[in-house]
Amino acid sequence: MEWRDINRVIFVGAAAGAVWFLHGSAAHGFLDPYIDAIGVACTLIGGFPIFHEAFENVMERRMTMELSMVIAILAALAIREIFTALVITEFVLAAEILEGLTVGRGRKAIQALVDLMPQSAVVRRGSDWKEIAVDQLRQRDEVLARPGTRIPVDGQVVGGHSFVDEASITGEPMAAEKVPGAIVFAGTINQSGALEIRVDKVGRDTSFGKIIEAVERARNSQAPIQRLADRLAGYLVYFALGAAVITFLITHNIRSTISVVIVAGACGIAAGTPLAVLGAIGRAAQSGAIVKGGRHLENLAEIDTVLLDKTGTVTLGTPEVSEVQPATSVLASALIESAAMAEGPSEHPIAKAIVKEAGRMGVSVGLPERFDYIPGRGVTAIAGGDEIVVGNWVHVAGEVPEADSRNEKRETAVYVTRAGVFQGTIYVADVLRAEAAPAIQELKSMKLRTVLLTGDSKTAAEEVGVALGVDEIFAELLPEEKLRYVQKLISAGSKVAMVGDGINDAPALTEATVGVAMGSGTDVARESADVVLIGSDLSKFVQTVRIARHCHAIIMENFVGTLAVDTVGIVLAAFGFLNPVLAALIHVSSEMVFILNSARLLPRRRVGGAAGRRVKVSVDVPRTFPG
Ligand code: ADP
Ligand code: MG
Q1: pTM above threshold 0.85
Q2: Rounded distance, CA 169 to CA 47, Å?
Q3: Which atom of ligand 1 is nearest to the CA of 453?
Q4: Is domain 120-205 in CATH 1.10.340.30, yes or no?
Q5: Fewer beta carbons below 10 Å: N end or C end of the chain?
Q6: Domain 304-314+433-512 is of which CATH architecture?
Q7: Do residues 473 and 462 make contact, with C-beta atoms less than 8 angstroms apart?
Q8: In the predicted model, what is the mean pLDDT of residues 410-425?
Q9: Is 309 annotated as catalytic?
Q10: What is the pLDDT of residues 580-596, one digit of tens each?
């Protein structure tokens, strides 16, 4: 807010007071033309920003509050209602200040986010530590995070031990313990110890950079409802102008006619919608979910089905080898060696588990000469001159004795063959995410159908699905089949959210109404998705759906409210119950109510937890509206 704006309000207010006083005083009469001339000048000078904005809106062919108010002001001047013109000007100026304050808060919320991003980092150069700008860091540089400072990059801890407040990324208030090997995020706060971190991503590429980008994009992108809102806003103004013409033709009362023009407007929804969308995306970001645009928020509010991938999504995706069952006359170490060699280049969680097990057993493995990954099935590699096939039952079809295929276990069975000879079975077990079952119960209580989609075997899928209480389970699906399932639901009129993490989920994520990727997932999944759960926490997905629904509800409230105020206002004005001043008061104050209604969604505290300065905001806006 600037002094100029306040001075303008005072100036116009004083002018209105003077005009009113002089018209009522003894000077009334011969001085009138001069008083009016000065009043007109004051209206034009004081209201200059409004006229300016209205002119721009005309050029852009947009109907706005400013434009309809300028029409009203000019009409009032034309019938020599100078006092009325000044008062309307005064209302609009005051409303603009209030609106500026609210929208400014949205902008400040974004700036606050940007400010959390450290600009410099202490980096190792030889045996020294040097402070340099973050954008000069390179991958695999080592940086130092001192206690009490913000971590400057996304990377992996290579030395030190500390607790890190990750609220800015995950929304989680509990500090997370970090030891070598742990992943840390830019923008989080290192609390107790010093950490040496190997740089993985910097600046805009970090998770935090992505949050900022999402929020900024939200400010610029329009949700479909927002476009609809703009269009309706236009119609409403034409409707009001039409009503004004009819009023004039019937009543011949110019004051009623002007009141009709003044009272109607769709600004509540036109100005309230972007604010609500921005607020909702900011709030989602604060709790650890990047929503990549207003459109996705709008879609998320309308979903009826949630599809969940199993491995890495409802499970931690860090499975461990639970049992090694070599075929007769094969050594366990030979089985593991074959499997690990073939899996070496794969980034599938099962591959990682097998490679890790080889390390644990002290089996050293080389890299394969050729490597093929068949998503949803397994890998085929050429190593040491032999073809090695590692994967599920479908993948090894025909090469494994039938007796070995009957997997009665809950674990995932991985079959291994080498040069066409069955080597044995490796069982891999994964742990359910702690929040998965409660999150799914909550989704169900929100009347959402939950479906588990997995490429894993039926037994393994059922074990997990029953523990979670999902409505339906589909197992042994190839990536295309996941995709086809999504397409089938969508063409049947469903709105579907798909949550996944793997390369095999990417096609389905793209096709779903809203694709949701786990932060710990593959790059492909995160790129294909519309929403990314940075902390890979499913409860944040539930929260984001709630935020989306809340946003939708607020937009609808504004919509219905604006319509109601307009209709009642136009009728009252047409029948002469409103004078132009009262009409302007109703218009401007109802718009303010809708803007404040939207502002309820703006994040309430500064992102960044304990170290961030808290901005306390308490706006208590009635859910009802005047008029
Ligand atoms: P999900 O749908 O549960 O995330 P995937 O589609 O990634 O699982 O994999 C489905 C199944 O295919 C796995 O359960 C496993 O049996 C097999 N599979 C996939 N990739 C591999 C791999 N790299 N090594 C061994 N088996 C694999
Ligand atoms: Mg997966």
Answers
A1: no
A2: 44
A3: 2
A4: no
A5: N
A6: 3-Layer(aba) Sandwich (3.40)
A7: yes
A8: 90
A9: yes
A10: 888 888 887 888 888 88
